[in-house]
Amino acid sequence: MKRALCLLLPAALSVPASADDALGTLTVKGKTTILRSVSAREQSDPDSPSTSWLVIVASDRKIEGDLAPAHLMQLARDGKLHAVRILWRVGTDTVRAVPYDAALPESGRMARERPTIDLRRYGSGRVDAEFRSKMVGQDWHFHANVKATVASGGVVDLEPEAEEAVAHTETSGDRKVALGRLGYEYTEGSFGHAIADGNLDAVRLFLELGMSPNAHETGGQHPLIFAASLCGHQPDSKPRSDVLMALVAAGGDVKAKDDNSSTPLIWAVQTGCSPSAVRALLEAGADPNAKAKGGATPMMFAEIFQRTEIAEMLRNAGGKK
After folding, report:
1. Cα distance between residue 104 and residue 255, in whole Å
2. Chain segment 293-310, per-residue pLDDT in tens
């Protein structure tokens, strides 16, 4: 199956790929990484067991351990991995891509832009294909030729879709002007004010300008804990939850603790952040059995406040009282 391309990308490299190797590039904010390693597995759809997904991870180095999104996210956040996870719904036109790179706020999130596929071979436990994404209009793009042995088994873990991005301005100066129009200076203190205000557009601008999702003034709360603790301050917690998810997607430390040893996950469950926000924390590696100093766990708060969907999510992640 060969898909028409609206835009031709230059070949990343001209050397033919060896068996079970990727050959391509991942470019993030103008910085290009060579992709040389590949793993492939066919897995069933969580909602339709008769539907299969071919999951390919093309990366700059061989990945030790499992290829689950949470593991890839942790490696990327630690600066140990640059990768693209490509998902093709077997026998259809559906192709999705997920970047894993610490420099991207949308790392670990399924891109809205669909890549194209040139499937040269698929069957008898092998895949030979080329994937391309758009080169313009976003902070990242990739091009990969893969030849790999395809393992099988298990249920695919689909990443959440990236949030709609704030329109990008052309320069950092323009972004700072846009931030100023929203009433914020580019400082750690002002970053905290944007989180307190639940201003998602401003928080995204801070992150695009390079503010660390873990940055806070001396003596202040960690941004993820601050955002999670504020979910209960609005009848509709969606704006607060969206801010929390933006911080997580940007590589925020989901294992941060406050003076009471409470983590962002404990706060999120306690104050009523959305199930999507709780899922984002868990997928990024939050401990479902974290304990505050008094012994409180996320599951305890889920049951106390009758957050049944979140309780089930915690149980599935191995959470206990």
Report:
1. 20
2. 989 999 999 999 999 999
**Residue 217: how many other CB atoms lie within 10 Å:** 12
Angle separating helix axes 200-208 and 238-249, nearest 10 degrees: 10
Count of CB atoms within 10 A of residue 39's CB?
21
Half-sphere exposure of 130 (CA within 13 A, CB side): 17
Kindly report the backbone phi and psi dihedral angles of residue 189, in degrees, each rounded to the nearest multiple of 5, phi listed first. Answer: -65, -45
* Residue spans of alpha helices (H) in the chain: 69-77, 172-181, 188-197, 200-208, 223-229, 238-249, 264-271, 275-283, 298-304, 308-316
Q: Do 116 and 95 touch, CB atoms closer than 8 A?
A: yes
What's the CA gap between 152 and 261, in Å, rounded? 41
Apex CA 270: angle with CA 266 and CA 275, to 5°?
85
Q: What is the pLDDT of residues 12-40, one digit of tens each?
A: 333 343 456 768 898 888 788 999 999 99
Strands 140-155 and 126-132 turn out to be antiparallel
Tell whether the torsion through CA atoms of 134, 208, 269 and 108 is positive or negative.
Answer: positive
Domains in the chain, CATH or no CATH each: 21-155 (no CATH), 172-316 (1.25.40.20)
